Amino acid sequence: MEKSPLQQARVAYKPQLPNVLTGTAVKVVEGEATQSAGDQEDIKKLFPNTYGLPEIVFEKSSDAAPSKPVNVGVILSGGQAPGGHNVISGLFDGIKAINKDSRLYGFLMGPGGLVDHNYKELTSDIIDEYRNTGGFDIIGSGRTKLETKEQFDKGLEILRELGINALVIIGGDDSNTNAAILAEYYKAIGAGVQVIGVPKTIDGDLKNSVIETSFGFDTATKVYSEVIGNIQRDCNSAKKYWHFIKLMGRSASHIALECALKCQPNVCIISEEVEAKDMTLDQVVDEIADAVIKRAEKGKNYGVVLVPEGLIEFIPAVKRLIAELNDLLAAKADEFAAVAPKEQLAWISAHLSAANAATYASLPTGVARQLSLDRDPHGNVQVSLIETEKLLSEMVGKRLAQLKEEGKYNGKYSTMHHFFGYEGRCADPSNFDANYCYGLGYTAAMLIANGMTGYMSSLRNLTFAPVNWVAGGIPITMMMNMERRHGEMKPVIRKALVELDGAPFLKFVKMRETWKADDCYTYPGPIQYFGPAEVCDIPSLTLVYEQKRRKY
Amino acid sequence: MEKSPLQQARVAYKPQLPNVLTGTAVKVVEGEATQSAGDQEDIKKLFPNTYGLPEIVFEKSSDAAPSKPVNVGVILSGGQAPGGHNVISGLFDGIKAINKDSRLYGFLMGPGGLVDHNYKELTSDIIDEYRNTGGFDIIGSGRTKLETKEQFDKGLEILRELGINALVIIGGDDSNTNAAILAEYYKAIGAGVQVIGVPKTIDGDLKNSVIETSFGFDTATKVYSEVIGNIQRDCNSAKKYWHFIKLMGRSASHIALECALKCQPNVCIISEEVEAKDMTLDQVVDEIADAVIKRAEKGKNYGVVLVPEGLIEFIPAVKRLIAELNDLLAAKADEFAAVAPKEQLAWISAHLSAANAATYASLPTGVARQLSLDRDPHGNVQVSLIETEKLLSEMVGKRLAQLKEEGKYNGKYSTMHHFFGYEGRCADPSNFDANYCYGLGYTAAMLIANGMTGYMSSLRNLTFAPVNWVAGGIPITMMMNMERRHGEMKPVIRKALVELDGAPFLKFVKMRETWKADDCYTYPGPIQYFGPAEVCDIPSLTLVYEQKRRKY
Predict the structure, then answer these.
(1) Active site residue A286
(2) How many CA atoms lie within 13 Å of A152's alpha carbon, on the beta-carbon side?
């Protein structure tokens, strides 16, 4: 692998460990027994062996390190997030600190690697190639879900063959849910394999009262904010375009909100607010058009609008429409198949309820077509194909044209579109994520050494310097409740959406009218690794506002 | 203006001046009289007062600084490029070094500000707000062309009113051409206003034997390479997509080539090569399909393709088609207006020559429609609307489907699309561009102090440390030849295309088969400002290879 000058320089970076992890061993301090986030009785029944475990906090110890070597397997699950390689290097260093004969095996291309017995041993020469780098390419990732007894048993074969005592699963809410189920199963059958989860996702929706943030969110939002800031500066220099920027994150708007707090754009739509206010697509369009009009009155025919990728699925009217479309096209599949292509949209309109037909009629034809006709092999609407940024800019344009005819708007409206997602998922981790991930991996090793299973590796106090971070473990069942998935009630980790009474959103609400009317753009610039701490080491603003503590 | 932590930290950066500019004054060393790049007789006739001037090199002098204050006007012309603010701050510091009573006026929103008398004085408090920052927002930019006597005379009114002795025009090849014409005109009428050009454009196509690079190219390509590198790492981790990435730059492929040299993608199309080889669109598609097939045979169903924005206009067959379309639709406008929309494509096909009709038929319908029907108010084809990255990926997909039927390809082919342009034009300048721009502005001040007009500010030896850069001035007429523009022969600065026998392209050719088949991705990461010199201060690889000197 040919390395860029920055990569070569970053090899030398030593992630900062919490002070508690710098002794020869850790002392386990157990908290009270825990309860699940909801549906306690159901969860307890499903996890008889791992329910109610105490939260764990480590304290520094100068006892001798546990001397028995541990063999550990590690899996990267789901979408890439900056810092995954550092979780693995922290885990590696952690188990080597326990005993230099400990071994680490990586299962390849995600959970499928465990089931299919594809793995490689991760030795120090491999680990050293990947320290402080982005990507999941050290072992690859995948989206196979570990859910069935057959998978668990198949996995156990290779774990036994390799003498693996513990499995670390690095993933989002679903993967950690499955880690808990696997932990419970292996404990129940006395397999002798511990399972530890690590909270990963750039979306930022895996967090709760005990997990302050998921790794990758910090770096990804910094990359997006860099390019958003650059576009804002272009916007403010050329003064001729409205830029519509879609940002990754289908399930929650944390990314859009964080980027808005960092960049101060003219408009940022927050899906959770749209849903809570039961806004229609037309109302979202009106809100943006209002900004365009207000700025045009000041001679400013330019601006920046941030749109979360998942918006369309949060609009209650659209959600109701999609639900009825799914039912309709499933129930009348044969009848619909006989409809001539040109008549399809009209046929659908005629078969929808009045309210949903009205929503359907409000959509641009291309989008109506995508929503109703372009379906995936399972017959589902392919919402991710909808170019929401173009949909909105087009609808705003139509609204403005109408207002122009009525003499209520007299500006110019030219648009540009962007979508940022893949640009940030594999960036080199920021110092924050490099430290956080390394610490999470190292903590996972300590949880293993202390016999824990069904725990998520945890670092808290994250707005303080890493040396002060609190390391420990959180029972995964503590984050769970029961939710309906594919028609069945399942135990799942509750997804963290943007809280409309949370500090980050309230800060945004307080500022947004000012940002809308004036040019308050800020330009965060690229992630810096070597400069002053106030540039290089600041955590996300979401974390800062949520913690309501001193600025780092 | 609320500043990000990085902006606050960058305020303190002191751009490095060439040693020759650190004395109290400069000594002018004149070279031989110069000739224009071509059409010497014609250019000489058009520039009787400014033709044949000598190249100027400055030497360090400890003489007293010229004591007379100078009043200078500055204009940002055309698209944004990182470092414009540093040209202005270097110019400001330069004229203040000449005499602290010198004044700097910025004309607003481009050359139009001169004609319309929109300006503001740039005082030290304003300048200090913008040092080392991206964007052109200090005074804005615009695309008005300074071409007519009326504009020149109107401009002179405000220059006289403000007592301005010299005008600095920061722009691309066209703007510098117009700077030369303006210099000639003001000299001819004895206006007493010198005109100095500064070479700006991220496209990198304003360079020649005496101008090593234009400013902004370094920073913009670093930003694009950062996100391309991140996407490559994602590509190499998820192993499931072919990413088609279009890069800004319509007239030349320098940006795509530089990003390819930095990132080592699987495929990079260079428009100049396509043109030189008289390749058809189908041949370009075949070249990409070939990479997809070769990689699929190794089990690699993923990759990255870089495409220069201007590709479609470089394909000779498409160029011929566009030319005939333009003629046809102009000559038979009335007849065509009567054709029913559904019949338009067929009507066009029937009226084209056989060769062009074949090219037309090879295009996806949407593109054929864009090429022939979506015309700007002047009746021209709107090539910039064509999403070349999607056009290519779609055509490659069709080709692969055909090969699959023939049993010659058995891979998976899923695509993602990106276009990077606005993300880089207003980035905070790299250390290279911060230094280069500041030095260009400072040098412009020295050219003014020494009575030059019709010169372009010049810094050379750019792969060495800034302290060793050679400062001086190049007569703009030296870069000119006659070219047909809108049906008339005009004096213009010759645009620098990618040279197919130049070192950067040859390096690419040498490596591209390896890059195609294997995963040789490099990940440049974000621009760094504070770290080790080999990370922060390296110039573009294009410059490094062109200079064939030691690595900086």
Answers:
(1) no
(2) 20
Ramachandran region, residue A186 (left: φ > 0; alpha: ψ -120 to 50; beta: rest): alpha
Q: Is B48 on the interface with A (CB under 8 A)?
A: no
Helical H segments across B239-280, by residue range: 254-263, 271-276
Query: How many angstroms away from the CA of B541 is the closest CA of chain A?
Result: 12
Residues of chain A found within 8 Å of residue B524, distances taken between Cβ atoms: 4-6
Euclidean distance between CA atoms B74 and B104, whole angstroms: 7
Note whether A174 and A467 are within 8 A (CB). no
Q: Does A416 touch chain B (CB under 8 A)?
A: yes
Residue that is written with structure tokens 């790492």 in the block: B233
Under DSSP, the state recorded for B163 is T
**Of B137, B230, B538, which has the smallest distance from its Cβ to A423's Cβ?**
B230
Q: Tens of pLDDT along B142-162?
A: 999 999 999 999 999 999 999
DSSP state of A26: E
Helix (H, G, I), strand (E, B) or coil at B410: coil
Residue of B nearest to A139 (CA): B237
**Global pTM exceeds 0.90:** yes
> What tens digit of pLDDT does each residue of B198-245 get?
999 999 999 998 899 999 999 999 999 999 999 999 999 999 999 999
Residue B171: phi and psi, rounded to 5, are -165, -175
Which of A391, A387, A371, A383 has the alpha carbon at shortest distance from A281?
Answer: A391
What's the half-sphere exposure (Cβ side, CA atoms, 13 Å) at B159? 26
| B168 min Cα distance to partner chain A (Å) | 19
**A385 CB near a chain B CB, below 8 Å?**
no
Q: What band does A65 get if pLDDT is binned at 50, 70 and 90?
A: low
Catalytic residues of B: 203
Residue A550: band (very low, low, confident or very high) from pLDDT cuts 50, 70, 90: very low
SS3 B207: coil
Q: Do B423 and A133 touch (CB under 8 A)?
A: no
Is A227 part of the contact surface with chain B (CB cutoff 8 Å)?
yes
**Per the CB < 8 Å rule, is B422 touching A416?**
yes
User: What's the CA gap between A146 and A198, in Å, rounded?
Assistant: 15
A129 touches chain B (CB under 8 A): no
Residue A462: φ, ψ to 5°: -70, -10
Annotated active-site residue in A203, A218, A428, A433:
A203
CA distance B367 to B390: 10
Q: Side-chain half-sphere of B338: how many Cα atoms within 13 Å?
A: 3
